[in-house]
Amino acid sequence: MASARQITVGDVKIGGGAPVAVQTMTKTETANLSATMDQIRRVAEAGADLVRVAVPRESDVEALRTIVTQSPIPVIADIHFNYTLALKAIDAGAHCVRLNPGNIGGPEKVAEVVERARAAGTPMRIGVNSGSLPKHLHELERADPVEALVTAATEFVTLMERLDFENFKVSIKSTNVPNTIASNRMLAQRIPYPLHLGITEAGTKWSGSLKSAVGLGTILADGIGDTIRISLSTFHAEEEVKVAWEILKALGLRQRGPVLIACPTCGRLQFDMDRVVAEIERRLEAYEDPIEVAVLGCAVNGIGEASHADFGITGAKNEGLIFSRGKALRKVPQDQLVDALFVEIDKYVKARQVVSDERAASEGAEWLAAIEAENAGELTPERLAAMEAAAADDEQADLDLVSALKPAPEIDEEASPVTGRRFTRS
Ligand code: SF4
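# iron/sulfur cluster complex -> structure
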């Protein structure tokens, strides 16, 4: 369920059923204006809806004044410990301020920041991290870390509500994936405000992406979460944005650019798939259309499970086939497969429809049919999967038959003396 409340950061709506917003954080020293702006432009190009910048010094506030006017996407100022920096970031025009109400010097300081945010119409993100819960929750944290995280977050929410301020979103972040999932599920039940999701210090591009996909993917699949940030140990913040998009695309929550599908390869592989898939992935980054492109390592199965793909390639015997939506487009020498694929994609992008040459298509179809016939008995991973699925269907049909043939159980019923309604006696 999306959050009931919605806030607006710059021109981006968060919560209340708005598309899940992708955000990231710059890795530069914010005061280094040109480096920070370069990175902001790169993350915006990669699809970030929002960007956060660290503001730990006065010089960062100075740079922030310019950044908010030059950034193509709304800018969130990230403040820790120093409430005067939060006040100054609001004055500098930050589109949102993120702070942890537990570490900026007590409720009076929080109230001062809230007053300034209210006057400027600036939303806030209040967040708790597993590593910095307030002291009075440390014992609870040892006994029940999930309850402790949720309690910390709801205490901050209560503080905001007492200050009559509701223009905020909330985050609970933990390095522990199960705790992140459980605490966000619990928090979504308890508060109506938009939720920012993230796994703290997720790790390297490889492990961090996986942890984030599992953690955030699970929460998002429940319909919880209004904006996400992937935290990766890389200087290239755009990598975080790409991972965020892959998660949202995989769940069907948002669409952006092409989707690449590729077989896992096996001993029947007919071309250098590693290189080919990497090249296709790189070249697809230049396209905006949400086309699906499939790469099959061999033509033994025909087009099979990739028959729904907008475009695809497969190969055999030094030749390759370009196909589209289950039909052959043309066959080409294998060393021309990738270029030929992009020629077809470009034709599609220009004409807004798949452009097919009848003669080339029928040549391709014949070639494919011959390869399929030649390999009809091969037990490929795809054919094994299809056989397993068929066997499972048969098993279910048997079970259905057995249960249909069973005599109906005798029901021992009697009527309630009070309501007259019939009930089963146990
Ligand atoms: S049999 Fe399937 S997994 Fe193996 S190379 Fe061919 S398409 Fe890929």
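# post-check
Residues 411-426 have pLDDT under 50 and may be disordered.
The radius of gyration is 28 Å.
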